[in-house]
Amino acid sequence: MKRILVLFVLFINFYGWSQILNVESFRIRTDTTGWAGKVGLNVSLVKNTKTLTKIGGKAHLQYKTGKSLILLMGQYELLSSNANDLIDKSVLHLRYNYKIRPKTALETFVQGQKNSISKIDFRGLFGLGFRFKLSKNEKFRYYLGTTAMYELEKTSLNTKEQHWRWSNYFSFSIYPNEHFSIISTTYFQPVFDNFSDYRTASPNVLIFKIDKHLSFKTAFNYYFDTTPVTGVPKEQYDLNSGILYAF
Questions:
Q1: The model's pTM
Q2: Residue 10, pLDDT above cutoff 80
Q3: Phi, psi at residue 139, to the nearest 5°?
């Protein structure tokens, strides 16, 4: 493997992520073919009137050829208190891009996830569509994606739903210099036969590079679902920051 990047959180944990995975933040900028990847792990234990245990981890593997790009991503987070799970969520995502024109790529993916807070025991996704590059400037990159997506969802309330959704996203990445970067994506995912049933999400990441190995990261994730599982709020968001060390 030509490049492995290991990330450790030195203080405030940054594993917050919404139900819609921000794939754009996982893409590694590289003009060379071959393998690249990232892995991260966070473990914490707090003992006072209660015992809190938190485990978080994520991994990303990418393989690039002349026209193809394969992305494999996984994330996991567990927060438990006195043997009761307060947070238990995980996601595994596999995506394949094939460039059919200089600015157009065929895009397909499969994903499985769990989120105890949102009462989702399992959500499986399969999508096929297109990704369009809207700019040539290497410091300012803009993309538009549109996909037909099949969704199967099972909840902790013993309900089951399946839909075809129209998944759309607009993403921009800004690299004004070698020390600063912003990655923002906005998703809109209505059900094909009922546009009043939709989800939106906006994950945003700001990274400031302090030196060769050290960076500061702030992330804000916003999520809205018009028809969530009973008892789950329509609107969810989180703001988190941390220090990244790469070697």
A1: 0.81
A2: no
A3: -90, -20
